[in-house]
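User: I'm curious whether this sequence folds into something compact or stays loose and floppy. Could you predict its structure so I can see for myself?
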Amino acid sequence: MNHLREKLDVMKQLRMVQQAVVDTVEGMSEAQFNHSVGPEWSAAGYLKHLILSVKPVAKALNLPQDKLREMFGTAEGGSRSYAEIASAYSERLSEGVRAEDYTNVTPDFYRFPDGVTDQKQYLTQTWDESNTRLLNAVEGWDDSALDSLQMPHPAIGMVTVREMLYFTLHHNSLHWNDIQRVGGLK
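Assistant: Here's the prediction. I'll summarize afterward.
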């Protein structure tokens, strides 16, 4: 993924992972989807975590760019590469940072609306819709704004919007692999 630089390339990869997660989850039985061992999350837990992680990014990127600038300022020096963002995140993980340090992105924080009877279907649809909102928001951004505006990431600090997209792609890919693994597909 080191070749990623253009907005359209990042969007294409985000779409691919979005669909891969949908296809993986839809192909799981309820038992596979809800199976967990020890303290590790189930595939359902990882999907909830991904939804809780993508939604605020989509919300931020749907704000007027002037509002985002007002809230978080502008970046100095442009964006790091995909590999640099993945490395920065891996370093923070090796230092012990975990999602559980930020309860608003843990599966326990996820609340279903009243009346939801098929949680797997609901989560799959919510994942798909959340990513589509993110991608639709990105379409309105030009490459220079992706590199000049910034926003906070809870584990790695202030990042440019492009860096947040790189992180989102990396994070979604990591947990897509986790979903497959805990679901017994890998």
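Summary: The chain has a mean pLDDT of 93. The chain has one domain: 7-182.
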